[in-house]
Amino acid sequence: MTLTRTLPMDPYLVANADSVLAGARQGDAAALEKLFRAFESPVYTLARRICRTAEDAEDVLQETFFEVCRSIGRYRGEGSLWGWIRSIAASKALMRLRRNKYRDTDELDDAMAPSRREDTALRMDLEAALERLGETSRAVVWLHDVEGYTHEEIAVMMGRTVSFSKSQLARAHVRLRRWLGEEVHA
Amino acid sequence: MSHLSMEALLALREPGVEPGDVAAREHVDGCPACRAELERLHQRAARLRALPALRPSRDLWPAVRVRQRLESRRWQQRWTGVAGFLAAASVALALFWGDVARPEPADASAEIAAARERSQVLESALEEYNPELRVIDGRTARVSQALEDRIAELDQQLEAAQLRQVQRMEEEQQEARMLQLWRERVGLLNALVDVHVTRASNVGL
Question: Does the distance separating the beta carbons of B51 and A2 come in below 8 Å?
Answer without folding.
Answer: no
